[in-house]
Specification:
Four Helix Bundle (Hemerythrin (Met), subunit A), paralog of FGE (formylglycine-generating enzyme)
Length: 434
């Protein structure tokens, strides 16, 4: 795809950047300066760090690497290098204040829009198909999701609002779907803004397996709790059992019991845990323990992608479960339109050809797989995006959540995290062998 073959590419890049910045503003404008500069959890950066980091990465890749310009403020570069300072240490750094961070990000964006108007979107790996601009739009949206996690961890009165989901609802008849044995194409070599860990497309083979039609719900997970799941070591990986004992974990993060009822805190609101929503804020260890208790297992990453993309009628892999068209509100709960998952059984139009539902949006889904490179992987444009995280320490999550923007979510998109993580918008579904 070039600017000649796709004349709307500049407009698409500009719209993606604009949407990301509007969301950044929606996450940072409603809170006080004290909230912006506070660290609401040692797991997360202060919101003001994310705000300036977004601008700094945009300057680095678009103004310096693409346009060849000098650094606007070289003295701040080390402050916003995500690998130089752990999150827990960032509040102690001489960070830009809220007003300075906003001015800096706005100045960078103004220069970037000028660059976008004049730069050929072809001729190098960074420019072909507008990749560098798409990468920056995705980077900002990923940090917006991170900031939304910080909002969930933040104590105090609610500052974010959104309507509850009103998605089409049509519960499937079968609780699981048979995924046939055979080969399919995993990954992509054609998606213009796909990131390095999604590449290249390659053939994978699976045995036949059964996959949950829907994500595991709060009601189903509560049955695991009621059956003593958190007190039975045989369900848990050794490290997971150690984790829940050491931290006295007895339920998903943000849940607590009051008067015999399970309640949860959601962006500052205390409410009953809704039975029909996919379970949220569980670690890989919790997902794995539930699956063992249920006599099942977590799907591998390969199985997840086959269930999401393989069309047995054509033998090809689609961009999304529903086909190649970009997502709409009828397909999936994406883009922070809502501040919660939709109930399991929503979005029948988003089903895969095999009949698996809600694979995109609502909750990130843990898989059993370690985060590893595909055959033929090439780090691009920098090793620190994916390569430094490869290995058994990180588990793969798939599918996105309600907090993920469509620009940073597709059938090939790979997320990863440590198996102890619970503050992320993570859930799961289970599988079993035939």
């Amino acid at each position: 795809m070039t600017t000649e073959s796709h004349p709307g590419l500049r407009e698409h890049a500009a719209a993606s950047l604009t949407a990301a910045r509007a969301r950044t503003a929606a996450l940072t404008d409603p809170v006080t300066e004290a909230d912006l500069t506070a660290q609401h959890s040692p797991l997360m950066s202060p919101l003001v760090w994310d705000l300036a980091h977004i601008g700094n990465q945009e300057e680095l890749w678009l103004l310096r690497r693409v346009a060849g310009r000098d650094s606007m403020h070289p003295e701040i570069d080390p402050l916003y290098d995500a690998f130089e300072h752990p999150r827990a240490e960032r509040p102690k750094l001489p960070l830009l204040g809220p007003a300075e961070a906003r001015r800096y990000a706005a100045e960078v964006r103004g220069r970037v829009f000028d660059l976008l108007e004049s730069t050929p979107l072809e001729g190098s790996a960074l420019l072909d198909d507008g990749f560098a601009f798409g990468m920056i739009a995705q980077h900002e949206q990923q940090h917006d999701e991170t900031m939304l996690i910080t909002h969930q961890l933040r104590q105090g009165a609610p500052v974010l609002t959104a309507p509850d989901p009103d998605a089409p609802y049509d519960p499937p008849g079968a609780p699981e779907v048979l995924i046939p044995a055979g080969p399919f194409t995993m990954g992509t070599s054609a998606e213009p803004w796909s990131l390095d860990n999604e590449r290249p497309a390659h053939e994978r083979e699976t045995a036949a397996f059964w996959m949950d039609t829907l994500p595991v719900t709060n009601a189903a997970y509560r049955a695991f709790i009621a059956d003593g799941g958190y007190g039975e070591p045989r369900w848990w990986a050794e490290a997971g059992w150690d984790q829940i004992r050491r931290h006295s974990i007895e339920a998903p993060l943000f849940w607590h019991r009051e008067g015999g009822e399970w309640l949860r805190r959601r962006f500052g609101v205390i409410e009953p845990v809704p039975d029909e929503e996919p379970v949220l804020h569980v670690s890989w260890y919790e997902a794995d323990a539930y699956a063992r208790w249920a006599g099942r297992r977590l799907p591998t990453e390969t199985e997840w992608e086959k269930a999401a993309r393989f069309d047995p009628a054509t033998g090809r892999s689609t961009r999304y479960p529903w086909g190649d068209a970009d997502p709409t509100p009828a397909h999936a709960n994406l883009g922070q339109r809502h501040l919660r998952p939709s109930r399991a059984g929503s979005y029948p139009a988003g089903a895969s050809p095999l009949g698996v539902r809600q694979l995109i949006g609502d909750v990130w889904e843990w898989t059993s797989s370690d985060f590893l490179p595909y055959p033929g992987f090439r780090a691009f444009p920098y090793r620190e995006y994916s390569e430094v995280f490869f290995g058994p320490e990180h588990k793969v999550l798939r599918g996105g959540s309600f907090a993920v923007d469509p620009v940073a979510c597709r059938g090939t998109f790979r997320n990863w995290d440590l198996p102890v993580r619970r503050q992320i918008f993570s859930g799961f579904r289970t599988a079993r062998d035939v």
